[in-house]
Specification:
This protein has helices spanning 20-26, 44-54, 78-86, 107-116, 118-128, 135-155, 168-174, 177-188. With 189 residues, it is mainly α. Helix 4 (107-116) packs antiparallel against helix 6 (135-155). It comes from Alkalimonas mucilaginosa.
Length: 189
């Protein structure tokens, strides 16, 4: 048997294929139905607002639907609110008080104690080396040196301040030239 090439024709007895134009005519049209989507048409919200604004106001019907509820919202749970009203505020158990330095010591004893203070001596050495003290060290140094000067004044051991270097400009400014000039005029006149 010889081989026969397959064709697209179904032959004389096969089903008849209609041209595309005839098929389109025979095809039934689907009934077009409206989609049932959520929400309204675009711009519907604003058109409702305009419509409501043009109508006479009738109390609460004039509210903007975009705004939320005005009802106050409790910030605490219901049980906590009642409990917080009945309780007193918590007071701290510890109290802050200033520390009194060397209470009960005589000024001589306190002065001797300051002179022997190792921490103060170390800080003095650092200051002499032109280091800058910061934080707790600076506060401690300032407090102790101030107390040391007070004790020296109290005991009368403080040396009088060194005579200031004579600044000719400062001396010139301190001098009241009017008195000298007026007194010279009175003597002459």
């Amino acid at each position: 048997m010889t081989r026969q090439k397959k064709t697209r024709n179904s032959g004389e007895n096969g089903p008849r294929f209609l041209p595309a134009a005839e098929v389109r005519k025979q095809r039934e049209r689907k009934e077009e139905s409206k989609k049932s989507g959520a929400g309204g048409k675009p711009g519907q919200r604003n058109s409702q607002l305009l419509r409501k604004a043009s109508e006479p106001s009738g109390g609460s019907s004039n509210k903007d639907p975009r705004l939320g509820s005005k009802k106050p919202v409790p910030l605490l749970p219901e049980g906590a609110e009642a409990a917080s009203q009945g309780l007193k505020p918590i007071q701290p158990k510890a109290s802050i008080a200033k520390v009194v330095v060397a209470s009960g010591l005589t000024p001589e004893q306190e002065l001797a104690q300051l002179e022997q203070d190792s921490r103060l001596q170390l800080l003095l050495e650092r200051v002499e080396r032109d280091e800058v003290l910061t934080g707790k060290d600076a506060k401690y140094f300032n407090r102790m040196t101030e107390r040391y000067e007070q004790l020296l004044q109290q005991l009368g051991l403080a040396e009088d301040a060194e005579p200031e270097l004579q600044d000719p400009l400062a001396e010139f400014e301190r001098t009241d030239w009017r008195k000298q000039l007026l007194s010279d005029d009175e003597e002459n006149g």
